[in-house]
Amino acid sequence: MYRLVLAVVTFGIVSPAFAQNSLKEEELLRIKAATVFIKVGAARVRATGSGFLVKVEGETGYLVTNDHVIDLSFGGDEMPGESAKKSTPVSVVFDSGTAKEREIKASIVAADPERDLAVLKVEKVKGLPTPLDISNPPKLFETMPVFVCGFPFGSGLAAGNKNPEISIGGSTISSIRTEAGATDISSVQINGALNPGNSGGPVVTSDGKLVGVAVKTVRGAGIGIAIPQHEVAAVMRGRVGRLLLLPTKMDAEAKGDIPAKLEVGIIDPLKNVKSITAHFLPGGKPLPKTPEPPGPIPDAMKLPLKLVDDQGTAEVTLPDGGKKGLIVQLELEVAEGKIFTNAIAVAVGPTGPGALGRPAPSDPNGPQRTPDGKLKLASGILLPFPRSPVMFPTPSNSESVSIVNAAPAPFVGKTIRLDAISGCVINPTDKNEFELMVETDSENVPSELRVVLPKDLALQVADLGIPELITVVIQIKFPVRVVGKLAKPVGREHRYTLTADSIEFLDEEGKAVTTLKPESNLPAGKPTLATVNRFPDKFVGQTLTFDALVKGTRYSGGTGIDLGTLNLASPLNLEVYTSRSLATQVESDIAKADLPARVRVTVEVKAINGKTQKGVVGVKQLDVLGDGDKVNKSLKTTASVEYPAIPAPPKPSAVPAPAKVEEKISQVAPPAKPAEGNSSMLIVALVAAVVLVLGGGVVLWMAMRKSKAVAEEGDEEAEEPARAKPVAKKPVPPPVAKRPAKPAPRDKGRETPPPAEDNPFASFE
């Protein structure tokens, strides 16, 4: 009875806790059906992510994901709400990885870069699943169990060549963040990192309510960030994007009124916005608060905007030559009523994006698209802009990787110009080689050919940071031309090896945009992290300061900081360490912000690791940089850098100096004649050896005979029984002397041997 009561009580305690930490089967099936695998782009540039269904109208469905999942513009200057992204090929996969999966083309109907949200639309799809409810927000609290749904690492976790199955990961809410002076939740922090590919997926409670949209992770800190549910609802309802105040006539000396044009981007996926009105005041004044309940700001002038597609425009007048701008509040009329934004100060030129006046999310570390259509990296290197399938021409003086891979033998020993496709992935091997992963025009990996780069050239390619450009699962590939000499397979390697002398990145016309070659001299200018990564031996013993990115901290073989070059690339040729005090400051002051963070770092180049041949670097100070490279905070170490044991370079083996040979002039003596009597001396030596062997044998036989006699005597004494009293022995009469027998005649040729059992040499008879 006691056990029964205990079991009932235990079940009553455990069951609710278990229920809170798991999804009910019906909720799980509903969420899985509404979550989709998103595939963006084609061929040269491809990305994958997650998304989920939020609205269904017959055979039309609307899905939400992150803007960075579908944005492959690399810094393109687009107005939120504009249709510039609509040409990006996008498809969504329902029931991904299962026998019921359906891949459907989707269109981009809204994009909100400020809040990192985008809305997709699918049409003429029968049997759409039930969407997730975005109108019923749950009450959030810290430690609340939540579940992250999506497709981490994209196709990387798929079995075979099919699309991946959905992953459901359990977590808890660790922080609920709000903007300064605001009550609305700005972001939801959850325990555990979000992996690439989770972006755009839903985060739900144990009863299936939408918490938000997975958006990013704080690298190295085990923290994930989700966009709250109310932001999703606002995007679907319709909201304001970026504002532009552009003077139609600009005069730097003007002091009076000047005409200008106000442009407002509209984010309206469902076409709910019926009208938009601007309420504005002259700039240069404190911002007025929005009345409660929300309404127009006091004393403001009212100006309706002309609404065309996803943009509202109006002509305005700027006082004082436009130097102070305007204070603007926007009013949107939507199906549910009127929406009033907070008042913001709008200067001449682009502001926002967003009616709330938050600064535009710029990424100075990311690649930017140049006016002539190139891709400019943060380090200044230009690359061809990745495009949809473009079959770059193959000039007559180069060879296609497909041709060389099919028949490599005729090219052995020759310097060839190999045209291929590459995502700039470097694969270090255990033989201290660096393989550049290349593909054929049809994006297949060659089976009979590999490309090996010299170390410095490999480090230059790795510093481009192409595999690390974006946090979603993305593949960026370029047409390249590798110049080098082809060699036969060696040892267990069955592939032919092309050792590169240079790499050219080609545009769609087959012309080289950038050429990389191995170098032995330091680049001109101040040292950078990329420079130290390439030539650590030239900086040993020096203290350097340069700009870099902090990606996180680590504690493996020493306290370390994960640094990145300005191109987001990790330095492959450096081991970076610091003190625990500085690592703790990084975790508390940087890891809570978005990573990677741009810093100005002071390091000492300690030594070269004799085993790995990498440079060992110690970080002494980090200056966290803000806008305009202004130092926001300085973090300094209060203790010594914690280095692990650094193997010394192997000492060269000492080679003995060759002995000095003295030349002597001497007469060569004739060969000596054999001395007389050598034969007789040899016979004497043999006889002596025989005598020694026989004498030794006799001595050994006598010793063994004596030891046997002693042993037999001891045995007889041991066998005599012990007596209580000694027994008197009868006197033994003296022996009668016998006449000795006449000895037998001896054989004069040999001695008579002893009996066989006592003769160790009897077997030689």
UniProtKB/TrEMBL annotation:
Swiss-Prot/TrEMBL keywords: Hydrolase, Membrane, Protease, Signal, Transmembrane, Transmembrane helix
Region feature Disordered, mapped onto this chain: 354-373, 712-765
Signal peptide per UniProt: 1-19
Pfam families in alphabetical order: Trypsin_2
Gene Ontology biological-process annotations: proteolysis
Gene Ontology terms for molecular function: serine-type endopeptidase activity
Residue spans crossing the bilayer: 681-703
Gene3D superfamilies cross-referenced by the UniProt entry: 2.40.10.120
PANTHER family referenced in this protein's UniProt entry, alphabetically: PROTEASE DO-LIKE 5, CHLOROPLASTIC (PTHR43019:SF23), SERINE ENDOPROTEASE DEGS (PTHR43019)
Protein name (Swiss-Prot/TrEMBL): Serine protease
Source species: Limnoglobus roseus
